Description:
alpha/beta
Amino acid sequence: MSGRPAEPTGKPAAELAAEQAAFWNGPGGTGWLAAYERIQRSIAGIGDLALAAAAVRHGEHAIDVGCGTGGTTAVLAHGVGLSGHVLGVDISETLVDAARTHRLDNATFVVGDAARHPFREAAYDLVFSRFGVMFFAEPVAAFRNLHRALKPTGRLVFVAWRSASENPWSTAPVRAAAPFLPPLPRPGPEDPGQFSFGDRARVERILRESGFHHLRIEPIDRPIWMGDSVAEVVASTERFGALARAFAGAAPDAVARAKQAVATLLAPHEGPEGVHLPGACWLVEANAA
Ligand SMILES: C[S@@+](CC[C@H](N)C(=O)[O-])C[C@H]1O[C@@H](n2cnc3c(N)ncnc32)[C@H](O)[C@@H]1O
């Protein structure tokens, strides 16, 4: 999983937002869709923990933020039943088109930026997200907008990755390949991206400034399945993520050496259940009031 890595240039929020929209409507969206079966296998267990924490009840109204292909929206829709409703919102038209194929009677999918979408005010019981909230150009504006959509009794539940250094499943292959590739952009601490919620204090600050109360932020640590074999993982690096983007700008022999370095790194982590490296997330819960 990866968002477009922004450079720490202090770019205006509007520019960062446009870049995220372009990424998720371009290579990010098509890459996510193409790799979704593998991605789902990697993150389903973490998503299930968030869905269990959300514990939707019949008749509730929920928003699934950054819903992607709508997998979690479908689970929430099942939970709220036909007397409830789920709104899946995502900035990527590609992914919303895929989500609509679920054809759910009690869910609607819209293309929109969570920071600006005109949600009905004080109408929802739950704002939920599986890894869909780390790409906001203006996180406080986005969470304020989501907070406005919640009833006073409403709740927020999401999972987000912790820091890059705590998530070697994503970063170790990039580090192993880096000596052979053109320099990769490094996001600044406040830039949107996969690890932008790694700092617990930042998450707390964003949520408090957005109006949320009673924050509960729990670490989840678990090995992340990366593929059935090292060869398969190495092949997949060409299709999606930071390495795929770096390979696109590198000479074929450099790509070959980079892949060899990734294979060497991963070899000790292959077992009968596939290749795993450690992963680390926050399970975040908060109340609207
Ligand atoms: C890592 S994917 C997660 C997708 C989905 N939640 C899942 O678990 O399968 C992040 C998603 O957030 C969406 N996204 C990024 N920025 C957004 C924004 N400002 N508003 C709504 N969705 C956004 C992306 O288009 C992408 O679908």
